[in-house]
Amino acid sequence: MSLEQASLWLVGSILFTLGSIVLLCGLVFINNIVHKHWKPVTIFTRESFSIFSGHHNMSDNLYSVNQEEYDQLIKHLETIRLKKQTTEATK
């Protein structure tokens, strides 16, 4: 392998890596723009690094809801739905 071939290979691999990084950032940006219709990507947030913080047991993060809390939540969501319907009806 000559010096010219080695330098072309090095430049090509650097440009390929930079292109891949730009493409990944573009995909994350587009995904976060359409987050109303899709779950946004959470890269480089505290939650995305939970694997490295020693919390391997996901059941620690679960929260069980009792029937009273569930009923309150359903009532709250129903009032929000009714408010939204009344505001759409008045438009």
Distance between the termini: 73 Å
Largest sheet: none
Low-confidence segments, given as residue ranges, are none
Work out the helicity level: 55-70%
Order of helices and strands: HH
Return the average pLDDT rounded to an integer.
Answer: 81
Computed over alpha carbons, the radius of gyration is 25 Å
Number of strands: 0
Query: How many individual helices?
Result: 2
- The structural domain count equals 1
Structural class assignment: mainly alpha
Shape: elongated
- How much beta, percentage-wise? under 5%
Topology, element by element:
Layout: H1 3-33, H2 67-90
Characteristic terms for this protein:
mainly alpha; 91 residues
Task: Report what the structure shows.
The protein is mainly alpha-helical and 91 residues long. The chain has one domain (3-90). The chain has helices at 3-33, 67-90. The mean pLDDT is 81.
Q: How is this structure best summarized?
A:
The protein is mainly alpha-helical and 91 residues long. It has one domain (3-90).
